[in-house]
Amino acid sequence: MAKTPRPAFRCTECGWETGKWVGRCGECQAWGSVAEAAAPAVRAAASPVTRPAVPIGQVSVEDSSFRSSGVPELDRVLGGGLVPGAAILLAGEPGVGKSTLLLEVAAQTARYQHRTLYVTGEESASQVRLRADRTGGVHDELYLAAETDLGAVLTHIEEVRPTLLVVDSIQTIGASGIDGVPGGVTQVKEVAAALIRVAKTRNITVVLIGHVTKDGSIAGPRVLEHVVDVVLHFEGDRNSRFRMVRAMKNRFGPIDEVGCFDLSSEGIVAVTDPTGLFVENHHGRVAGTCVAVTMEGRRPLLAEVQALVTPSSAERPRRTTSGLDGSRVAMVLAVLQQHCGIRLHAHDVFASTVGGARLNEPASDLAVAVALASATFGMAAPVGVVTMGEIGLAGELRRVRDLPQRIAEAARLGFQLAVVPQEPGRSRSRSPESWTVDGMRVLDVPDVMAALRLLKVVRLKGDAQHPPPPTDGGYLRPVD
User: What does the entry list as the binding residues for ATP (predicted)?
Assistant: First the structure.
């Protein structure tokens, strides 16, 4: 005899399943969220089709052409703009500016005589109207509704017949007759499936705002990210006005693009050239600073790294970083001590970036090393220098991706010298090779010590050009 399947129990918060009831979910650790799942549905029978199947060559692509959202930086991330019938999920931390961005997109779409419906479940209609007045987003083709019921939202879609639908947010909309509270696994699945079904059948672009958990991942079931066409993450520091949109999934374009925005009290503005936000304009040479070239998607950005090194009286000196990976900074410090003779075990080290930039890729290692060495010896690097390169544990410099694009961006911004890693296969004993790109001189060096010597930010043994350090820091001067 066939065994009767055991009743399954599912967590209403995260969807975790178990064969028996438990008081606490084994996945999200929520109490009282495990309930008996519904019985499996019977096998579906054949039913009439909505549209007959046709050869793929006869399928029209005009209905799925890109349409500009009115925000160029968002179009860059989406791969060209909004696609009719597409479902887009925008997630981000509370207060980062998701509603402000999408209200601007809705207003720009309405400005081009495309009817737009903005459904808010977190705020009242008057609150959204106040934001629209502040940002200049009041238009006749922009319709606003404050609803938390899925049936009411579908009725608004039938009456308004919009080209763009914005739902703020998916976790606040609930479906009647479905178990669970709004924001739960079952509710989010049903609401998302209904809205996506309307988007596909009516050729409406649907943009859903989603919440994130404490670790920054999208809240709700993982299936939500699978059923939508585009997943965007809105990132930004609360202490900075700079915001970035990243594409984590995109069925219509690349996923390695980022969009830059400036969030202010007047609204959100696209930043087409964000490099100036991360580079300080010093009047002269300043010790402890160096400019790195990092890649945000396919866009090169210049960011300044600053370092401060002071003698410490504590048994365990401090190592503080801001905007940099602390483990990589610790690795660079170890390389400087082992291969460059710069001992900082008795000093407090502080390293940060300018303007709230986050440098996580290894290409910024050389800039961190130059800033630390410059701060240690009080010797500033020449003005107009950029560095890029990954530092290995043996002290060598490794090539980084998209090096020509980085060099071209630094040359466009008026820098005079770029220090880059040496090409693989060249002898380390050869002098640095030099070439020119758009008036900027480029030098390749084999290792970190050669870069520090080239920029003259270290004090070599027997060097009489510079006086000794002003304080007894206990540095071991690098040997020539």
Answer: 92-99
